[in-house]
Amino acid sequence: MSDSPVPANPAPPPQPAAAGGAPILSVRDLAIRFRTADGTVTAAADVGFDIRAGEIVGLVGESGSGKSQILMSLMGLLASNGHASGSAVFRGEEILNAPARRLDALRGASMSMIFQDPMTSLNPYLRVSTQLVEVLERHRGMTRAEAMAQALAIMESVRIPDAARRIRLYPHEFSGGMRQRVMIAMALLCRPALLLADEPTTALDVTVQAQILELIADLARSIGTAVLFVTHDLGVVARLCDRVIVLYGGRIMESGEATDIFGDPKHPYTRGLIDSTPRLDERSHGELRTIPGQPRAAQLAPMGCPFEPRCPHRVVRCRTERPAPQEAGLRQLACHEVRL
Amino acid sequence: MTGETLLAVRDLKVHFPLQGGMFGGKGSVVRAVDGVDFELKQGETLGIVGESGCGKSTLARAVLRLIPHAAGEVVWLGKDLHALDAEAMRAERRNMQIIFQDPLASLDPHMSIGAIIGQPLRTFHRELSRQDQRRRVFEAMRQVGLAPELADRFPHEFSGGMCQRVGIARAMILKPKLVVCDEPVSALDVSIQAQIINLLMDLQRRFDLSLLFISHNLSVVRHISHRVMVLYLGKVMEIAERDEFYARPLHPYSEALISAVPIPDPLLERQRPRIVLSGDLPSPINPPSGCRFSSRCPRATEICHKAEPALLDYGRDHRAACHHIPITPVATPR
Amino acid sequence: MSDPALDEPLMAELAARKGRSQLQDAMRRFRANPLAVVSLIVLIAIVLACFLGPYFLPFGPDDADFELISSPPDFASGHYFGTDELGRDLLARTLVGGRVSLLIGALATLVSLGIGVLYGAISGFVGKRTDALMMRTVDILYSMPYVFFVIMLTTLFERSIVMLFIAIGAVQWLTIAVIVRGQTLSLKGREFIEAARAGGMRDWSIIRKHIVPNTAGPVIVYASLTVPEVILGESFLSFLGLGVQEPDTSWGVLLEIGAEKMGTEPWLLLVPGAFLVTTLFALNFIADGLRDAFDPNER
């Protein structure tokens, strides 16, 4: 791979100089509620975190943890019966519930999203070249020729072989892995400061997943894009992420640096999750340790700790009293029974 | 685990015709499974791994004769399944069952849980009274950790993990000898995945079940399988005892697969050597000549593009098909 | 085995609730649709009026009142909707005519439903040559003009309500067969059908227990659209003079007579017309409601 995955272009690059300084994205007290026939359902509450340039943060949780809804709310793509409150400041600008016009401009240029199914962001009836060029013409004001050259360079930078020929194809003519790359190429066109990734490798084979993860890591390193990576796969988190946020029932259970979280998981849920994942390097074949019960869907009015019904260490107050977050350095924990 | 051989698959081939065959012209075929051999003993679990499109699911369905084969034999307790007439085949089905990847899709949305689980009883044990059937259904539900009070509920009211338990109860109610598991935990949450794996292993111990466990998740396969078989474009690349396979993979494709699986431990994970394969799986309609893996293989040389390597035994029943294995095989190919 | 999945509160909660199939869920959604419910009530009222009403009327449908020939609606005489040129009470005739129309609508739909569902399910499930053969047969029948078909039948056999019934049914089942076949083809690839096959079920049992019940949603919707179509078809044929004959009557026959006298005795057209239009509207709203109930995501 060449020294820079994305060729120089006239637009101002995100400021990697800010690394370690002000966060690219700062989320505070984020809550997401949905109006349903049975009343208001809380998909997420009291969610807060920061992401700095070049940092890859993993958002881990099972179904119903609210991880995808958090991403959607940041992109302004919540379903029509959903409402987000709190604040999310992206490079000094409030983006939560920002006007659609402003979000449109941001989504194309400085924050982009990749999905599990690439076809959600690719138009099946247009050639890949048309779709890439259109974005550049609109958000960058490039001429058609400039845009085409830039689009080709992007395709090469995500290591699509024979890019000059393939850029003329339609999305369905690509294999699964290649399509994922096209989507990533599209997301990176304008060198976004923030990339939101919603399980982009879940549907892929391990060998292709390995390629895509490496690609994302490279991009974060070389152009300083901050990545918020949603997944349920702890292995992927361990490979890719610098920091981890563990969600359950729409609330943050624990967060911290990946090495700390995996090396010394504190929260009973984090521990349960790690223990119940079979490992490639394990040698025991006995019963796996499990978390009893089923992940619960979003609750109407949750009290106490959402993990309480499944927690092996629960005590009486876990049911009624929400644990206050404990903090130590980069580490955060919300549990009555475990101390940081 | 030294049970008798339950299932012996010999040179099994499954071909799907592509369009064009209808007008008399010879349409080309997809060789989805192209000459697979393996044996399965009673009480044993054989894990079948490979990327999507490698023929795992097709193989499973051909073993159960849910789809027709093109050539070869599936010998089940001494009988070739594909040679049986329809009624004899139907009678054998009580001993072989299947569990699917998508738990909800595998349950009829219009039937209650109890009716779904009891269906095999109504098919094979019509002599049972209603009460006896219901008793057997409750017993099967308890076995898989479902409260019998749930028998009158419907599948769409259940979570994925519970639906999968229903599928397992349906598969277990006739006490079969073989259960084919087609990616049974891939669609489940991590914490539920572990529950289902434990359940399958527990049922296997209790009923001396044989499992064909198909998965793309090599970590899960390591946990549950006694032996592992790697498929690539319809061919067996390697087959070996579990720990032997993970500790000493002989085939470059197996090596690449194993190295691509992330381990949930950042410190370990960041220093593991990694073999990143280039590109995706080639099309099974027109596989590479010679060794099928040659187009993506880091070890490939000229011979790999010309001659197809045979599946040879490298000792301790560890067989692999590659021209570039540094040790010498112990026996001639069968 | 001490099973961790036995999440006691969840299990208890699930067990306490009453089980609801998708069909029951659909009915619940239907009940939540006021327009559909009102339409259903209207339809039931019309059906009851047609089948029970004539017993409570002072006039029979064939009783001629020679003193009041072609009289307009009149409360004093008791002929609330007037009389025709033979002095017969129009309300009585409309209600009795409604019996024929509604009966043909319901029966022809049921018969075509029976044939169509079975034909379509078998064609789709067996597939290959059988499917091709069965579907080409449908195509051929489709291509025969409906009216031509009826004229042929009525010239070959004696004209009767039964014949009308056969003629309409013979055309209506084709569409149902095509719909059910399409449904069957998509169901056939579903895993629960594969599970049934792996479970040793015979093809016939699979069609009966898994395929047919799962086509119920679209079939019910289509059937509710077929009833008005059949009623209209009967009216059309009777209007052309190919259907029900005097002194028997139906809404179609009444409309035919009414249309002739439109200029001088408009009530003869308006009364049966109002009944027919109300019934058709009600049936269409019910069909709409059913479609929404079975396809909640398509709204």
For this structure, the CATH topology of chain C is MetI-like fold
* Terminal-residue CA separation of chain C: 46 Å
Total number of distinct structural domains of chain C: 1
Largest sheet of chain C: none
As for the CATH topology of the largest domain in chain A, it is Rossmann fold
Estimate the global geometry of chain C from the Cα principal axes: elongated
CATH architecture of chain C: Orthogonal Bundle
Q: How would you characterize the overall build of this protein?
A:
The complex is a heterotrimer of chains A (340), B (334) and C (299). Chain A is an alpha/beta fold. Helix content of chain A is 31%, strand content 22%. Chain A has helices at 67-75, 100-109, 128-140, 144-157, 163-166, 176-188, 206-223, 234-240, 258-263, 268-275, 316-320; strands spanning 25-36, 39-51, 56-60, 82-90, 93-94, 111-114, 194-198, 226-231, 243-248, 251-257, 326-328, 331-333. In chain A, the strands form two sheets. An eight-stranded mixed β-sheet of chain A has the order 6-7-8-3-9-10-12-11, sandwiched between helices. Chain A has a four-stranded antiparallel β-sheet with strand order 2-1-4-5, with helices on one face. Chain B has two domains: 5-18 and 30-225, P-loop containing nucleotide triphosphate hydrolases (Rossmann fold, 3-Layer(aba) Sandwich); 250-334, no CATH class. In chain B, the strands form two sheets. Chain B has an eight-stranded mixed β-sheet with strand order 6-7-8-3-9-10-12-11, with helices on both faces. A four-stranded antiparallel β-sheet of chain B has the order 2-1-4-5. In chain B, helix 3 runs parallel beside helix 5 (160-172). Chain B is globular. With 299 residues, chain C is an all-alpha fold. In chain C, helix 4 (90-126) runs antiparallel to helix 5, helix 5 (128-143) runs antiparallel to helix 7 and helix 8 (191-198) runs antiparallel to helix 9. Chains in contact: A-B, A-C, B-C. At the A-B interface, helix 6, helix 7, helix 8, helix 9 and helix 10 of A face helix 5, helix 6, helix 7, helix 9 and helix 10 of B.
